[in-house]
Every structure is written in structure tokens, then in C-alpha cells.
Fold these 2 entries.
Entry 1:
Amino acid sequence: MLTIKDKTFVPFIDENRLKNRIFQLAEQINQDYRDKEPLLVVVLNGAFIFAAELMTHLTIPCRVTFIRVSSYQQTASTGVVREVLGLGEPVTGQDVILIEDIIDTGLTIQDVSRQLTGQQPASLAIATMLFKPDALKVPVNIQYVGFEIENRFVIGYGLDYDELGRNTKEILVLA
Ligand code: 5GP
């Protein structure tokens, strides 16, 4: 159990399940991109731990860059997607894998995908650690999903509540 400010969180996905699943996703990416050299575009802040773990299991040549967006305030989506920090390099002609922590309404990843597609990458895939299918408001084509979860607020392993709670080895859910 973990209490942050006014909220209590309880264990949801333990460290073993999480790491095993991330390893499986990496193996799948190693297969799918065996003749390629993908560019991982990590959506900050929440995806940094997932991306790091995933990348340590990639055996293909790959590079990484970061984009920072924010659409959330506390535990409810504002529905406003904002690019805070842009890409350091163009993705034109690259095999891009967008790395997200969690897809909820899908608005963030839709917006980021559009921005990247505008730069004409060779291909664009999406990998997310968590996905809430019941919360989805726009169609998104996700190639790699760690876990599909119910529509509840989770923290840990990079995900925050009011910027706290990112530093856990497991995923916890609002009690
Ligand atoms: P979307 O645009 O798909 O609604 O939301 C995506 C972003 O909202 C994620 O990258 C994440 O920052 C935040 N988010 C969505 N659901 C949750 C959740 O259950 N917990 C936390 N901590 N953040 C969430």
C-alpha cells in the first residue's frame, strides 16, 4: 500500500509480471524489426522507466529520442494535448516506434502520431505499457501492448499522481 497526499494506492501489477511482459514485447520488436534500425520516440515523463527496461532487451540496433507532452492534471484528463518539448531530430524516413506509458482516451498518442506522421517516417508503430480500452475516445492503432487494464487510475513504474509515485517497481491502483 502507498499513500500519496490524499490518495491510497494498492498493488496491481507486480514487478515480475511487469518485467516478464516487457521482455516479451522486446522479443517481439526484435523479431519485427530484425532487418531494421528503429528510432524509439519516448513520450516523457511517464514512459521513461518502461522505455529503459524495454530498450535493455532490444538486441537490434536502435536509437532513442524523447518528446514531452502533457494532457493530464491530477487524475482526470483535461482533453487538452500540449507538446511541451519537441523532437531533437526529424523522423523523416525512420522506422519510428512511439513509446507510451499508458493509453487512456488516446488523445495524446493520436496527437503525437499526427505530428510525427507529418514528418513522413518510413513507418510508425506504437508501444504502450498499459492500455485502457474502455476509456478510448479516438481510434488508435497500437502494435505493442503490455497490459490491457480496466478504466482505473494507476501509478508507479514511471506513472505519477501529481508528479509523485513514479519511483516504484510495480504498478499500483487507486484504492
Ligand atoms: P490519453 O491522452 O490517452 O487520455 O492519456 C495519456 C496520458 O495520460 C498518459 O501518458 C499519462 O500521462 C496520463 N494517464 C492516463 N491514464 C493514467 C493513469 O491511470 N494514471 C496516470 N498516472 N496517468 C495516466
Note: Residues 46, 71-72, 77, 100-108, 153-155, 159-161 surround guanosine-5'-monophosphate (CB under 6 Å).
Entry 2:
Amino acid sequence: MPTSSGASFVAPDPAVAATRNRRGAKLSIVAPMHNESEVLDAFFTRMGQTIADLGVEAEIICVDDGSRDDTLAKLLERARHDPRIKVVGLARNFGKEAAMTAGMDAATGDMVVPIDADLQDPPELIEEFVRLWERGFDVVYGVRADRSSDTFIKRFTATLFYRVFNRVSDLNIPMSAGDFRLMDRRVVEAVKALPERNRFMKGLFAWVGFSQVGVPYVRPPRAAGTTSFGYLKLLRFALDGITSFSTVPLRVWTVLGLCAALLAFGAAATLIVRVLVVGRDVPGYASLMVAVLLGFAVQMLAFGVLGEYVGRLYQEVKGRPIYIVSRRAGFED
Ligand code: UDP
Ligand code: MG
């Protein structure tokens, strides 16, 4: 059952749906890999089976993200025997987001599917993705219906992250959606056209829009090997996500500054009135306090103003397009 899982996207375009057919279309699988030697055999077995069942032309783009084990050597060996397998070896570990970007840049398919190499994203689901793509959806994303394979802390922190992210950014990324999804070529082009360097992919995938739909699935534990994401890395990732899609952390200072200024002016006024009415108790207290409070208020306000400008600078520097057109009709060209 497809689901929208809280996010709202435009409806699929029937005219687009009419042109979609897996026959004659090419599928690009993009698999970022960091120290995945142990799981490679299982990955290619299941991936090969899925592609055979789908009956589409396919390529499997494996991005070796600076593995220290023999992942790259194994990939190169496989690529020698299987023309569908393409290998991109990064010069060091650049992180999953960079590896996915490299893979998407190399992909030539009409449909592109980023997928984890550890089989936590079941390849069999791609069949359903393709079906919905044929019905006109531009993005079909997997939604983790059951996260019991994750620890309680991971589930809790993930939920917290989505809540905070959706609140402070003007985006709505679907709850519990990961990177596992199918994207139409035009979505891939739109994502590739985003010039920013800090690539929080889940955010970019949602930012470009188009018609999107979720498919729930149960996320199994890793097939073999170990996760590359510790809590510290996840925290950095969460901060990356929030800071690339929100200037709220910069701009809260305007509100805080205003509140602080109001309080400070109030306190200063009370102190002055008190001295005038009851006379001074400790000499110098009122004047010192008023100076401190006003100085503080002015500083907080100044931070806020700086935050507003830096926030806008940041938006401009990212150089994102103002909008993305998905369809035009009735024009001469
Ligand atoms: N990965 C990567 N570069 C990294 C970390 C991870 O390419 O620096 C890949 C990894 O090989 C796997 C996917 O990203 O295919 C997801 O990583 P992992 O399974 O370790 O994360 P988890 O599922 O625990 O969140
Ligand atoms: Mg994993």
C-alpha cells in the first residue's frame, strides 16, 4: 500500500504516466559502499535476481567510498566479468552523501535507485517502485514501517530529528523515509543541478518536489559487516541536515534579543523609578544595573540583526534555483 507518510506532494501527471513503461527504460542502481566486503556476494546475488525478475535493462553503479578492506578490489574483479557493473572508486572516505552524489552523477538510467549495500534496503521492493513509477510518480521512496531492527535510542533520536527538522525548515521530509527510493531521470537532473556542497540528500530529494509516494517496508538488520554510523556521526549528520535547510538557529536570536531587550528596558525603568520614589539603597547599584541591562539588550538585538543577514547570505550562497518546473503547456516553443 502506497502511503504519503505525512508529507504532501503534487499528484502524478497522467500525461507523464502514459509515457512510462519499464520496457525500453533503463534502471540505474546506485550503491555507496564503505567496507562492505563481507556483504558483496549476497548483495550481487539478490540484486541480480531482482533485475532479472524486473526484466529491465540495468546498470549497477558501485561507489567505493574509501574502503580500507578489499571492497574495491572485489568490485573491480566483478566489473571485469559483468558489463552491467560499473565502479567508481573515491580517493578517500568522503561520506555516504558524497558517495551517492558521485553515483548519481555517473548514472545514465531513466530510473535511479540509491540503495544501501548491506541489504537493509530489500532489493525486491524495487519491483513495486517501478510499478508506481509507471503510474506516473516521479519519486517512490521506501518508508520503514517497522524499525524494530534499530535500537530504541536510534529510533528515538531519529523521530526527534524528523520532528525538529520538519518544524524548523520549510520542508516536510517524510517520516521514516531513508535514501532508498526510485527517482525519475528529471528528478535526478533537478537534484544534480543543486550546486550546494553540503549534500544532505534526504533534504534535497524532498526539496526538488515532483510527485512522490511512499511504500512501507520492514527494515531487516544488516546482512553482514558492521555499521559505519556511530552516534557522533549521526549527530553531525543531523546538524548538517538542519543547518542546510534552516536558518532558524541563526534567527532565533532576533526573537530572543527582542524578549531580552523588552525585559531589560522594563527592569531598567523599574530601577530608575524605584530610585526616584524610594531613594537609592546601595549607591551605584541602579546606574550600574541599568548600564549592564541595556548593554546586554543591545548586544542581543545586534546578534539577531546579524543572524538575519547571515541567514539571507547563506540562502544566497547556496545558489539553489528559485523553483523547478515539472511541466509546461501551451507555449510556442
Ligand atoms: N556508507 C558509505 N560511506 C560512509 C558510510 C556508509 O558509502 O562513510 C554506505 C555503506 O557502505 C552502506 C550505506 O552507506 O551501503 C549505509 O551505511 P550503514 O549500513 O553503515 O548505515 P546504517 O544502516 O547503520 O545507518
Ligand atoms: Mg545499514
Note: The beta strands are 26-33, 57-64, 85-89, 111-114, 139-146, 177-184, 212-218.
